Task: structure prediction
Amino acid sequence: MGAVLFFASTQIASAQTRTIAILGASTAAGTGATSYDSAFAGRYAHYLQSLNPAWKLVNLSVSGYTTYQVMPTGYQPPAGRPTPDTAHNITKVLALKPQALLICLPSNDIDQGFPAAEYNANFDSLRTWGLRANIPVWITTPLPRSALDAAKRQLLLTLRDRILSRYAPRAINFYDSLGDAAGNYYTAFNFGDGVHTNNHGHRILYERLVAADLPVQSATLIWARGGFGDSDGSVSPDRSNATFSRVTYGLPRLFADTRSGMLAVSMGRVPTVFDMQGRYRAPIGPNSGWSNR
Result:
């Protein structure tokens, strides 16, 4: 008999709300796009809903913010630096208990003349706060910024390189293809102020955010070889030689597995089955078994 895949009803992902939070400045807030729905964050919010209605995006971005405004509540900044905004900072994110955090604070620290040692330390601290709370943290690079002078644009490029090397694999490149080697926007992506990107650029940022695959919450699958499930949809290991595997939320992901014919599942509105070639098979329920022949 062909192998049969069963879902145990107690192991299907719940409808509990799952959150991705953004701490950012004007680009993350949507500046440069003709509407929020055309901005990278607005597009991403719709994308998350298309994966599963339980996902939502909480965007805490505020135009003009630097790394200082999003530092923890109670943090005392150096003289002349902004104080944390308790409604839009890392402490607020921790209270939300999100499944992931995106930090998108491109270049306002540089624009305001803060030393690199300060904003680099702030990025490190924000990431540490998230990781201590078991929240995966992604950090984007700066975007181009033609409005800066040459010296500050060099600092921007240095920050880009630091983020890509220090925070990999959870660093997202928001620079490449939008700007040149000197820190300036390519005309096609310049909103017109030398600071923000337009709809075309926001679309690229959205696509790179999707490719980063932030929604990595897992659902448990049971792989049953040659057995049948119990009446409640569970699998008895002694009857089916079941083993347990994982599959992530997001675009359909296939298991890196050498067993012939193994199935993968994308947890969308309705769980769906794909074979190892990524071909759609069928929607399934907690008591359904599918022979993969």
